[in-house]
Design a protein that fits this description.
Blueprint: H1 9-19, E1 23-27, H2 35-43, E2 52-57, H3 62-70, E3 75-78, H4 83-90
Helix pairs in contact: 1-2
C-alpha cells in the first residue's frame, strides 16, 4: 500500500487533492475540520463515489455512527481496535 498521513482535516483535504486515494481511514474527531466535514467534502463530488471510506472514532454513539454513514462513509470501526480487525475491514 502507498500511504499518506494527515494529522487534521485541513491537511487531509490538501493531501486528498493531490494523492487520489482508493481507500481512506478517516478519524471522525480531528482538530480543525472534523471527519464529518472531510467525508461530506469528498462525497460532494460524484467522481469520488468509488473511494472507500472507513470512519473510525473512540466515541461509539449511535447518532455519531448514523451521521457519518449518512454522509457517505462505507463502514465504521470503533476504537480501540486490533490491527487484525483493521486489516479485515480494509480487505
Amino acid at each position: 500500500y502507498l500511504i499518506e498521513v494527515a494529522y487534521n482535516g485541513f491537511e487531509a483535504g490538501k493531501k486528498f487533492a493531490t494523492f487520489s486515494p482508493d481507500f481512506i481511514i478517516l478519524d471522525i474527531r480531528m482538530p480543525g475540520m472534523d471527519g464529518y466535514q472531510v467525508c461530506a467534502n469528498i462525497r460532494s463530488d460524484p467522481k469520488n463515489k468509488s473511494i472507500k471510506i472507513l470512519a473510525i472514532s473512540g466515541v461509539s454513539e449511535n447518532d455519531e455512527i448514523k451521521k457519518i454513514m449518512d454522509l457517505g462513509a462505507d463502514d465504521y470501526l470503533g476504537k480501540p481496535f486490533s490491527n487484525k480487525i483493521l486489516k479485515e475491514r480494509i480487505s
